[in-house]
């Protein structure tokens, strides 16, 4: 039992989020999170968009779950490694109506989600209608309805699958979103316009955190956005890049620079949030550096070319996406998976392989790329 529990049960006046001074400096007590709630896009969707629209098909999920599991990868996502580290079950997607268990939290992330309200339907470029503001609306509804239901079924088996009211204040709230705001921006705006929009985008994320804080949330673990210019999809349609278009690892420079700018603004905003929310423990996590580190060290780690894709057929200008069938040169081609996904960083050109996700999780969850530099298991401590 963590120290905070003793304190919390001992005195209602003691805030759950402990300052480092309370527990005595460097040796922070583990937080013993009872639940976690995630908000995000396909990087952390554990079944939402798959349940709401069309199921994600094989060979997705086959490496770990041995069947499609609503995830855009061959196996687990970073959010699944978070669950493992917190010793909590994998999160059920809020939108998944069957076989769900929300006792230890819920996942509001959906593939294709943006922070900003989208201006297009999912049928055009796959942008999800469940943008961050809507995920927060869903969280509120989830909370209200599950509380009502809990009161009706208290003492029965059914109640075991529902969250406990007292756990919201002792839950970890995790975020991984923003990548699609950049991809929409690259498609629809000039770099100048997108740059000008970044403060507003980052502010919307801060608004979500403020809302959860007002609802009693205290511990927040916020991933920054990855090196979007290193996603192989961004190179599929580039044949003769002009000099300076790509960096030394073959990533689209201007796109990565925009991601870095987003991250600088997000980090600043996180600092301000700590002032605005006096009892919040807010951890900003530099996932960008982990992902870029993995990509730049692919060779020494014994991995395949980071811009090569495990699953799908991508030759010249023919692109058959992972798990799809298509026609190339009048014959049918299947977007097949590679032999060994564990040596690939990119699973399908947009999403990371389970092996990459594990590496990124291992390099972020122990706090070495976090601000403040505390492991996720201690992310309830306000530093
Ligand atoms: C949405 O798209 C319409 C039509 O392309 C455009 O006129 C409008 O300015 C866009 N709004 C936003 C917020 O991007
Ligand atoms: C397409 O098919 C033709 C006839 O079978 C063959 O000669 C040609 O090499 C093929 N091209 C590619 C790119 O596979
Ligand atoms: C975190 O884990 C990574 C990968 O194992 C390791 O290189 C790093 O030194 C660790 N950092 C801390 C603070 O434990």
UniProtKB/TrEMBL annotation:
Q: Which residues form a coiled coil?
A: none
Q: What keyword terms does UniProt attach to this protein?
A: Glycoprotein, Hydrolase, Signal
Name of the protein? GDSL esterase/lipase
Single GO molecular function: hydrolase activity, acting on ester bonds
Q: Which family does it belong to?
A: Belongs to the 'GDSL' lipolytic enzyme family.
A Pfam match is Lipase_GDSL
Extract the signal peptide range: 1-19
Domain of life here?
A: Eukaryota
Q: Which InterPro entries match?
A: GDSL, SGNH_hydro_sf, SGNH_plant_lipase-like
């Amino acid at each position: 039992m963590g120290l905070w529990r003793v304190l919390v049960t001992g005195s209602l006046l003691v805030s759950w989020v402990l300052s480092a001074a309370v527990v005595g400096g460097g040796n922070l007590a583990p937080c013993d999170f009872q639940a976690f709630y995630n908000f995000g896009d396909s990087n952390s969707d554990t079944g939402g968009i798959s349940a709401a629209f069309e199921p994600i098909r094989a060979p997705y999920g086959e490496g770990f779950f041995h069947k499609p599991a609503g995830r855009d990868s061959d196996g687990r996502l970073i959010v699944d490694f978070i669950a493992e580290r917190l010793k909590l079950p994998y999160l059920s997607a809020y939108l998944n109506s069957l076989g769900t268990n929300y006792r230890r939290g819920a996942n509001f992330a959906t593939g294709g989600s943006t922070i900003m309200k989208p201006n297009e339907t999912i049928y055009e470029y796959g942008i999800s209608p469940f943008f961050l503001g809507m995920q927060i609306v869903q969280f509120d509804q989830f909370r209200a309805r599950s509380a009502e239901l809990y009161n009706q079924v208290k003492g029965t088996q059914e109640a075991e699958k529902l969250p406990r009211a007292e756990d919201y204040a002792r839950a970890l709230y995790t975020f991984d979103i923003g990548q699609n705001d950049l991809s929409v921006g690259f498609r629809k705006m000039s770099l100048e316009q997108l740059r000008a929009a970044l403060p507003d985008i980052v502010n919307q994320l801060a608004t979500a955190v403020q809302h959860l804080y007002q609802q009693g949330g205290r511990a927040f673990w916020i991933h920054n956005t990855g090196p979007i210019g290193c996603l192989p999809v961004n190179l599929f349609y580039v044949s003769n890049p002009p000099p300076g278009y790509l960096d030394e690892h073959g990533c689209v420079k201007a796109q990565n620079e925009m991601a870095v700018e987003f991250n600088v603004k997000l980090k600043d905003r996180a600092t301000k949030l700590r002032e605005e929310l006096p009892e919040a423990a807010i951890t900003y996590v530099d996932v960008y550096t982990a992902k870029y580190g993995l990509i730049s060290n692919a060779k020494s780690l014994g991995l395949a070319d980071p811009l090569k894709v495990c699953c799908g057929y991508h030759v010249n200008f023919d692109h058959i996406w992972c798990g799809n069938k298509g026609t190339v040169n009048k014959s049918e081609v299947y977007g097949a998976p590679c032999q060994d996904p564990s040596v690939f960083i990119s699973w399908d050109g947009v999403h990371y392989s389970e092996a990459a996700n594990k590496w990124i999780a291992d390099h972020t969850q122990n706090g070495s790329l976090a601000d403040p530099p505390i492991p996720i298991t201690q992310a309830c401590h306000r530093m």
